[in-house]
Amino acid sequence: MAFKLFAALLPFLVLAAPAPLQEKPSGLSKSAEFVLEGGTSFDYVSVDAAGNRLFIAHGPKVDVLDLKKGTLLGEISGVDGSHGAIAVHEVKRGFATAGRKNRLIAFDLETFKTQKEIETGQGPDALLYVPSAGEVWTFNGKGRSISCVDATTLEVKATIPLEGKPEAPADHPEKGLVYVNLEDKSSIAVVDSKKHAVIATHPLAPGEEPTGLALDAKNGLLFAGCGNKKLVALDVSTWKVAGTADIGEHCDGVAFDPGTGNVFASAVDKTGGLHVQGPASFEPLTPIETKGGKTCALDPQTHTLYVMSGPGRGAAGTVKVLVFSPK
Questions:
Q1: Which of 57, 84, 296, 297 is surrounded by the most beta carbons within 10 Å?
Q2: 212-240: per-residue pLDDT in tens?
Q3: Closest CA to 93 of 79, 78, 104, 102
Q4: What CA–CA distance (Å, rounded) separates 171 from 5?
């Protein structure tokens, strides 16, 4: 009798299932695109808000764009296997990773001329300035390590071994920690920035093969963009999954805007994400079309999102930066 009663109620239980969450508009619309000349390879794009510039890893160089005028200011040349670049105004220089050279390139922020090439672990990819240590860290994909370089003396201070292939990092200065995705382990490593040591590793399930990473320090959340089309929000106090969102294919970048509470995950077909209402409260964002999209960066001052776009690996085509500004 109990089984018959349950079977009779089943259709009503299905009908009573919660409806999908309504999407929240991102508040952004496409305002411009920058077409890049030369080479077809491309990777990280990063915002230098203090200098009103955009650094774009593009082939054997890094293009530098003026954010106000939308014009090319110059390039950092000789960055063979270019993956990314950042500005460190405290020492009046910038840094770029040259993956094929196994080098970190230090360059002058005004002239863009190379000052020094510093040997790193094998295959430096992403890079991060860690202010609490005064160091620039390169995350070496093939070497499965982190090279920690003093931003002033340009000397390697430490090499931190990792259990997997590192992708994007995020700095949490209040805690003295750096987080980094381990793509082949579907996990996040936690690194003590003073001790130069991994102190924990946490799984990302249901996320797999994480690449992009961003931190919401106010709500204590890490957002990892994963290869199985999932954006995973992790609570860094408990390391439990606080929420997920469906995103596009081949996500390679994640950016968080603390001013709007929006987190974006750029992918080949679309850039989706979440609106953060609190530590465990989210709304899915209406996706933005970003055909050929890859990595992304956000200017927190203007709330503008920049997405790298171009042909797939080994394919010919035009490389662009897609610009999405507040409506």
A1: 296
A2: 999 999 999 999 999 999 999 999 999 99
A3: 104
A4: 55
